[in-house]
Structures are given as structure tokens and as C-alpha cells.
Amino acid sequence: MRQQVVIIGAGPAGLLLGCLLDNAGIDNIILERQTKDYVLARIRAGILEQTTVDMLHYAGAGARLAQEGIAHHGVNIAFGQELENIALGASTGGKVVTAYGQTEVTKDLYDLRMKNGSPTIYSAENVSISDFDTSNPTVSYEQDGSTVTISCDLIAGCDGYHGVSRASIPKSAITAFEKIYPFGWLGVLSDTPPVANEVVYANAPRGFALCSMRSMTRSRYYIQCDLDDKVENWSDDAFWDELKRRLPSQLADEIITGPSLEKSIAPLRSFVAEPLRFGRLLLAGDAAHVVPPTGAKGLNLAFSDIHYLYHAMKSYFADHDDSALDHYSYQALQRVWKTERFSWYLTNLTHRFNDDPFEQRMKEAELAYITSSEAGRQTLAENYVGLPL
Ligand code: FAS
Ligand code: PHB
Questions:
Q1: Is the peptide bond before 275 cis (omega within 30 degrees of 0)?
Q2: From the CA of 48, which ligand is nearest?
Q3: Probe ligand 2: pick from 97, 190, 212, 218, max atoms within 8 Å of CB?
Q4: Is there a catalytic annotation at residue 293?
Q5: Average pLDDT over residues 60-89
Q6: What does the alpha-carbon distance between residue 301 and residue 309 come to, in Å, rounded to a whole number?
Q7: Running DSSP on this structure, what letter comes out for residue 173?
Q8: Considering only CA atoms, which residue is closest to atom 34 of ligand 1?
Q9: Model confidence over 338-382: pLDDT tens digits?
Q10: 185 Cβ partners below 8 Å, 6+ apart?
Q11: Which ligand sits nearest to residue 286's alpha carbon?
């Protein structure tokens, strides 16, 4: 079998790239190791930058988002009993963020991909990449006991942090930067009305808390927890009690609790691999970088990679412009590092993870500054809505 592009991973990055290449008439196949149902049931991000919304519309997958997405014109920062709303549009030319779950984004892209009719292979086992540093790369996978080998021009590694793509690169050819945070996030999804109309990030003496949503009847909440904590240590009641303890009373008194539909603990890390191009193999999304979910950047950063990669691939196939692939790595990493900085900054600012009283005072002073200074509010707003592509 031959394809112009083999995409590894049918998460949001792989599906978006596949749909964009479909529209450009560039033949491609997506190989996904999990089942379709497993991928479509994943619960992850919830806040989309305007560039992400625009890309979904550009790809042809924005109709439901336009109907069901909820525009947020501000974001809330809580510390102690203080609750400050940061307006997003005033200093960003009217930009907003949109509450719309990654689960829905993946479903919309999956539906578009099926409509396009291009091949997406789920339950593809033992995907392996060969000769990506030559002009004849191949990708093989196993299914139903047989092995399929695909020759191609380019390989897009969209297979996430634990994928095979980055793992296939010789250690001497890649540089990794990583920071592991000494805490995790315990997340709960519930069919209860959100306590606030816009996201709340709370720095409380007992630890960080986040109030978000998937709709006006479905909420997503997180609390900072120890790295070695277990979901089974947390009954629903214990979660709701702890969440209330970490919010200003004006919010805690208003929370409507209910049974958890999903409860999980995610670790937090900052990670970047450089460069993003290795011959005919290009890395994108979580395969290339990971951010702590504070600031809601993971999914959005994956999509900005795909924006750059899609245009580089179009140039490559239209003009056999090999430099476009090098430029992809350079261009994507510029936005990656600036977004890594914001996610690291907001994580440090809103979480409690060392008992240094001076550090805590610095965080409180920073929170007081950014919420009382026009320049501070503008800086937070322009990073939260997403930096220009
Ligand atoms: P993904 O990891 O989504 O997709 C990669 C795909 O590749 C998966 O379907 C995987 O099964 C497949 N794959 C892996 N190895 C393979 C192989 N060898 N062969 C074939 N396929 C393979 N971001 C936010 O902004 N907010 C959040 O709240 C948030 N919460 C998160 C919670 C968790 C538990 C995780 C892991 C991430 C979270 N993120 C969050 C970040 C997340 O949204 C990612 O940024 C986003 O999924 C990135 O999309 P992809 O790059 O497509 O990677
Ligand atoms: C979410 O809605 O899941 C969400 C919102 C904001 C974040 C992280 C996650 O920073």
C-alpha cells in the first residue's frame, strides 16, 4: 500500500491533520492503536482558543461547535476570599475562549473523517516506523494476525506523549526538556449546573481548585492532589467537601453537587522535544510537547502545530519544498515555548507545593498585581485567549 502521508494517532491532532489533508487532496491514512469507542469516550480538555475554533470551521467540523460551544468573555482568579474576573476581549481585540469538550471535538472530527471516506485504522497493533531518515519511509502495523506495510512520503507522529513516533528517534538526534510537578489533578465530571459562567482558577491554602464546564448542565471540577493519591480514596462527598473548602464562600455556598459521571487523576508535566522534524517524520501535539492543564493549552497547542504542519505539507507536495518541513519545526516551537511558559507560570502561581512562606507571599503579591494592574490583566488575557499563530 502507498500513501502520501501516514498519520499515527487518531486523537485531535491526527484527526484534524487527516481532515485538512483530505480537503487538500493529499492522500493519507490514520493508524490508531485503541478502539474507536475508547478514543471517542476520552474526557480531557474543555476550553478552545479562537484559533482552534477557526481551524475546526476551516476543516469543515465546526457546525455543532457553533451551536453548542459557550463563549467565555472572561476568566476568574480566586485567592483567599478574593474573586477577580479578568476580561478577555477588552485588551485582545474582542477575543474570547469557547467551552466545548475535547470529547466533542474528537467526535466532530471523527464524523468528518468518516464522511470524507479516507482510511482510519483503529486497533492497529504494533505500529512501527522504518527508514524515516531516507526518501522511502515505511510504516507497518498488525491487525487480525496479518502485518500491513505502507510506503509513504511523510509520517506525522500524532500519537501523544507515550506514542511510538518520538520513541523511534535515536536519542542522539533529539533533545528533551522536562519538568514533573510534585502533584496531580483529581477531576470530576457531573451533570450539575456550573457554579460560575466562566472558568475559575483558585489558589487556596488547602491547594488549587478549578471550576469549569461542558455545558450549562454539565460541570467539570478539579482539585490539586498528591502525586500518589488514588481515585478510590475520594468518595463523591469527600470531593465536593474539599472543593468547597478551596473556593471563596460566595462560590462554595452556591455549588450544586451530584454524582460523578467520571473521576480521574492526571499527573502534570511540562515537556518539549526538539526539533520536531527528523527526515520524513514530523512530530505534532502531545507527541512533541506536553503542558500542565492549567491555562487550558494542551489541545490548543496541538492544533497550532497542525496549522503549521498542514501548510508545510501542502508546500512540500505542491513545490517539493523540503525547507517547508524544517520551517515547520522552527515555527511551531516558537509558539510551543511561549505557551509552555504561560502554562508553567499559571501552574506555579495557583498551586501550593512547597511550604516556603516567602514563596507564598510572592504568589499572593503577583496575584494582587496582575488583578489590579491594567498591564497585568492584559498580559494574562492575551496569553489565555491564545497567542497569534
Ligand atoms: P492524544 O494523546 O490526544 O492522542 C494521541 C493518540 O495516539 C491517542 O488516541 C493514542 O491512543 C494514539 N496512540 C498512542 N500510541 C500509539 C501507537 N503506538 N500507535 C498508534 N496510535 C497510538 N489539555 C487541556 O487543555 N485541558 C485539560 O484539562 C487536559 N486534561 C488532560 C487529561 C489527561 C489525562 C491527559 C493525558 C491530557 C490532558 N490534556 C488536557 C491534554 C490533552 O488534551 C492533549 O493536549 C491532547 O489530547 C493532545 O492531542 P494529541 O496530540 O492528538 O494527543
Ligand atoms: C476543563 O474544562 O477541563 C479545563 C478548563 C481549564 C483548564 C483545564 C481544564 O485550564
A1: yes
A2: 1
A3: 212
A4: yes
A5: 96
A6: 12
A7: G
A8: 266
A9: 999 999 999 999 999 987 899 999 999 999 999 999 999 999 999
A10: 210, 222, 223, 224, 225, 265, 266, 268, 293
A11: 1
Cα separation, 26 vs 59, whole angstroms: 14
Model pTM score: 0.97
The single residue of 110, 293, 308, 310 carrying the catalytic annotation is 293
What is the topology classification, in CATH, of domain 181-268+350-384? D-Amino Acid Oxidase; Chain A, domain 2 (3.30.9)
Q: Does the domain made of 2-70+100-178+269-347 have the CATH classification 3.50.30.30? A: no
What pLDDT does residue 221 have? 98
Asked if residue 52 has pLDDT above 90, the reply is: yes
Q: Residue 308 catalytic?
A: no
What is the percentage of the chain residues whose pLDDT exceeds 90?
Answer: 96
Best residue among 198, 213, 220 to mutate for probing ligand 2, ranked by most atoms within 8 Å of CB? 220
- How many Å is the Cα radius of gyration of the chain? 21
pLDDT for res 159:
98
**Kind plus residue range of the DSSP H or E element containing 376:** helix 374-384
Q: Indicate whether residue 159 lines ligand 1 (CB < 6 A).
A: yes
Q: Which cell numbers hold the place of 340?
A: 509552555
Ligand 2: residue of 77, 210, 263 to mutate (most ligand atoms within 8 A of CB) is 210
d(CA 204, ligand 1 centre) in Å = 29
Closest ligand 2 atom to residue 296 Cα is 10
For residue 380, how far is its CA from the centre of ligand 2 (angstroms)?
16
Each residue of 235-279: pLDDT tens digit?
999 999 999 999 999 999 999 999 999 999 999 999 999 999 999
- Give me the DSSP letters along 229-257: --GGG--HHHHHHHHHHTS-HHHHTTPPP
- Indicate the residue type of 274: E
For atom 13 of ligand 1, the residue with the nearest CA is 159
Structural domain spans, the chain: 2-70+100-178+269-347, 181-268+350-384
C-alpha cell at 280: 520524513
pLDDT(126) > 80: yes
Q: Which three cell numbers stand for residue 83?
A: 474573586
Cβ-based neighbour number of residue 256 at 10 Å: 11
% of the chain at pLDDT higher than 70: 100
